[in-house]
């Protein structure tokens, strides 16, 4: 019988990796709270229509990457491939429009059936933020500043570059789309099969194609800037001025796009060259038409998402777990007292390990293997006197103390 393995594209988060994973979430959550973002959690599966409406029936995610299945009742549901649609659906379902603007932070697993590679799994995890109900460019500035602040708190800001672009308003996008289609149609034979399919349904996605042939064609494509109207130019100028005022450096990237029509104005990514092909660390943008696309009232929005696995790969310093205290009963008579002392010390806030078996030598060896800070030993003599012997495992010094004084002395050591 073959050894059971995790499903391809999934992996176990063992303690060391879990510490890095958790550090990303906890630090990000803490920074987000300072910006007024409250935590939200939506179900990991939604009705499939939630994603078909938002991602488009012909997008790669919908046609190739979603994990969808039917319930007995005949309803089709999908494991979430991203979380913005779920947050927007929650806004509509819970009637939250009277409370706008709303600021949300989230974390959790997402699912996409794609080729696994470094920094990309079929079950992966994201943190993200959504700011709903704020049409002003100040919202874009704040959301970008928050993403940067989190990267700074994680100690990886120096490994990233902020790339920025504008997608303009709907009128600008329509004009640019028409120009782009006209250009690509003249060079259609040079495009990859995927890009030829995108030409009729989502031509902006050709601009960020990774295919070398497509890239050569894209080099001569019309520039978005030439099709921006005054409203779009002014909005983007305000975003740039705000970032400048906060001394947030950025690089303009006219090829940074979002393909769906509900995206508008600001698009941005924090990228890193430490991750190989998967360079995007934080990716976001403004999506003023999303909620309306889902059947809700017109609601401006902007947000970003970041892959926890990718961030964890970049993080260098993660706090080690607290060094434990080992409580060691010497002899069967001491077991009950050792058990009670262990529980008392845990309630006082200490990490405590009580060995389940073995003589004093074996238990001390185990204490050293777990890098314990101190050992508390209770033998027959200590038991009679209501005391315990406390050994500092760093210095080797030891002393005998009353049982109710152990916690006070440990607080001085740990």
TrEMBL record:
Primary location group: cytoplasm
Keyword Protein biosynthesis set for record: yes
Entry's EC annotation: 6.1.1.21
Keyword Zinc: no
Subcellular location: Cytoplasm
Catalytic activity reported: tRNA(His) + L-histidine + ATP = L-histidyl-tRNA(His) + AMP + diphosphate + H(+)
One Gene Ontology term of the molecular function aspect: histidine-tRNA ligase activity
Keywords on record: Aminoacyl-tRNA synthetase, ATP-binding, Cytoplasm, Ligase, Nucleotide-binding, Protein biosynthesis
Superkingdom field: Bacteria
Domain Aminoacyl-transfer RNA synthetases class-II family profile: 1-329
One Pfam family, short name: HGTP_anticodon
Protein name per its UniProtKB record: Histidine--tRNA ligase
Species assigned in the record: Fodinicurvata halophila
UniProt gene name: hisS
């Amino acid at each position: 019988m073959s050894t059971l393995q995790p499903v391809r594209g999934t992996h176990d988060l063992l303690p060391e990796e879990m510490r890095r994973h958790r550090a990303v979430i906890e630090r990000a959550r803490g920074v987000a709270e300072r910006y007024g973002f409250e935590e939200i959690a939506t179900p990991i599966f939604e009705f499939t229509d939630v994603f078909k409406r938002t991602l488009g029936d012909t997008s790669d995610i919908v046609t190739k990457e979603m994990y969808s299945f039917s319930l007995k009742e005949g309803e089709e549901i999908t494991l979430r491939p991203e979380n913005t649609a779920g947050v927007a659906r929650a806004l509509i379902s819970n009637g939250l429009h009277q409370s706008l603007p709303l600021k949300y932070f989230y974390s959790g697993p997402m699912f996409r059936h794609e080729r696994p590679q470094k920094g990309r799994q079929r079950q992966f995890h994201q943190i993200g933020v959504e700011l709903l109900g704020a049409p002003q460019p100040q919202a874009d500035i704040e959301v970008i500043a928050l993403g940067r602040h989190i990267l700074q708190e994680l100690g990886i800001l120096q490994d990233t570059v902020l790339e920025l672009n504008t997608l303009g308003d709907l009128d600008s996008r329509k004009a640019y789309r028409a120009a782009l289609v006209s250009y690509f149609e003249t060079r259609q034979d040079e495009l990859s099969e995927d890009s030829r399919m995108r030409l009729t349904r989502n031509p902006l996605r050709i601009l960020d194609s990774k295919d070398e042939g497509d890239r050569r064609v894209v080099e001569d494509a019309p520039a978005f800037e030439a099709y921006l109207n005054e409203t779009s130019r002014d909005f983007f100028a305000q975003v740039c001025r705000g970032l400048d005022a906060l001394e947030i450096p950025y690089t303009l990237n006219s090829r940074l796009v979002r393909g769906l029509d509900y995206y508008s104005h600001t698009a941005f990514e924090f990228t890193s060259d430490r991750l190989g092909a998967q360079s995007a660390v934080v990716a976001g943008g403004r999506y003023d038409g999303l909620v309306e696309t889902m059947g809700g009232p017109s609601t401006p929005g902007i947000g970003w998402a970041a892959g926890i696995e990718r961030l964890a790969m970049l993080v260098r310093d993660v706090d080690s777990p607290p060094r434990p205290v080992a409580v060691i009963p010497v002899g069967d008579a001491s077991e009950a007292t050792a058990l009670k002392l262990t529980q008392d010390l845990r309630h006082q806030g200490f990490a405590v390990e009580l060995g389940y078996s073995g003589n004093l030598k074996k238990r001390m060896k185990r204490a050293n293997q777990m890098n314990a800070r101190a050992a508390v030993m209770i033998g027959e003599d200590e038991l009679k006197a209501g005391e315990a012997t406390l050994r500092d495992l760093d210095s080797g010094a030891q002393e005998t103390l009353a049982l109710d004084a152990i916690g006070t002395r440990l607080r001085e050591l740990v």
